[in-house]
Amino acid sequence: MKEMECGSMLKGELAEGCRHCIEGSKMVLLVTGRCPWGCYYCPVSLEKKGKDVVYANEGRVHTDEEIIAEAESMDATGTGITGGDPLTCMDRTVHMIRMLKEKFGPGHHIHLYTATIDPEKASALEEAGLDEIRFHPPRDMWARMGETRLADIVSKTGMDVGIEVPAIPGSEDDLISLIRYATSAGVKFVNLNELEFSESNWDMMDSHGYDVRDDVSSAVLGSEETALKAMEACEGSIHFCSSPFKDGVQLRRRLIRKAENVCKDYQGITEDGTIVRGLLYAPDPEKAAAELREMGVEDGMMAVLDNKVEVAPWILEEIADQLEYKCYVSEQYPTADGLEVERTPLN
To answer: Over the stretch 1-32, which tens digit does the pLDDT of each residue have?
Structure first.
């Protein structure tokens, strides 16, 4: 067993889709928030859960062009299609796969998550161009996988087939049963995710008696131990994906990748992938910009916006005390919502 970054563990080979995610080069495409399974531990956000919406990374999208633009903005080498359950809207999902392959070529790696183990639908997804399918059967199916048609799918498909489930404390026996069955059926890999609290599942998780691992994490106490016990008891390629790994490696590298593509000359990028901006608020931004020019600030180092002037932060820090306007350094995510994470006054 090999230790990876941020507490993740690997036995055997890593799934191809995971290799892209580790580099931060996979776009996350939620094709619907609808799902018939009702798993109590589902972490999907309230704005998406149960709703027929489409999101590319953090932004809601309505057209193919918006999806393509998001992929291009991060130089995506692949896409992870998720939900909800994407197989509740097969026509849309098939269209998305074909559209992405046509735009970016066969090398654009696409993997998909679903709880629906249906050979006919799996075949349609493969025909559309899907490279990798990850089944996440509901908890009550883990010890009854022989009742599904998973083995039929594995035996007939050219796609990589995997299992991806949360490591639920107290589920060791059924989890081991699931992994052993999947391996015997020819599944290529198993991913075990550290179980996490989220805004949408908090009440249900609490009602099941789970606790957070510590005060700075949303990870569930005992989830990591459950995963490691299962890995030690089973053969095959198994990856434990820790909560810090998802945020500190996958998300962070995706943000850095996006920031490097969208960052303006008058902005900076932090080691966490956030964009740093200098903000000057003025009743007349054009007048303020003219004053900045008189102070030697070049046009390429600022931009006039609605009620403010954005100025290179390293320049604004030097001259803020000479200005009558309120000035700040702002740090925000390079995402569709542009979430501001910190703002520091300069004068």
So the answer is: 999 999 999 999 999 999 999 999 999 999 99
Contact 315/297 with Cβ under 8 angstroms? Answer: yes
Output the DSSP codes for 286-328. HHHHHHHHHTT--GGGEEE-SSEEEE-HHHHHHHGGG-SSEEE
Taking the C-alpha atoms of residue 81 and residue 294, their distance in angstroms, rounded to an integer, is: 51
Instruction: Please check whether residue 10 is in contact with residue 190, taking contact to mean a CB–CB distance below 8 angstroms.
Output: no
List the chain residues with pLDDT less than 50: none
CA neighbor of 255 nearest in space, from 73, 3, 61, 65: 73
78: preceding bond cis by omega (within 30 degrees):
no
Query: Residue 189 belongs to what H/E stretch?
Result: strand 189-194
Q: Report in angstroms the alpha-carbon separations of 219 from 43, 58, 198, 212, 281.
A: 12, 21, 9, 6, 40
Domains of the chain: 2-259 (3.20.20.70), 263-345 (3.30.70)
What DSSP line would sit under 298-309, residue for residue?
Answer: -GGGEEE-SSEE
Q: Is 330 helix (H, G, I), strand (E, B) or coil?
A: strand
Q: CB-hemisphere CA count at 13 Å for 320? A: 22
- Lookup result for tokens 């059924």: 174
Instruction: Identify the pLDDT of residue 147.
Output: 97
What tokens does 4 get?
A: 């990876």
122-175 pLDDT per residue, tens: 999 999 999 999 999 999 999 999 999 999 999 999 999 999 999 999 999 999
Within the chain, residue ranges assigned H as helices are: 16-22, 64-73, 90-104, 119-128, 150-156, 172-184, 202-207, 223-233, 243-245, 252-262, 285-294, 313-319
Q: Identify residue 60 by its one-letter amino acid code.
A: R
Residue 128 identity: A
Question: What distance in Å separates the CA atoms of residue 25 and residue 258, rounded to the nearest whole number?
Answer: 9
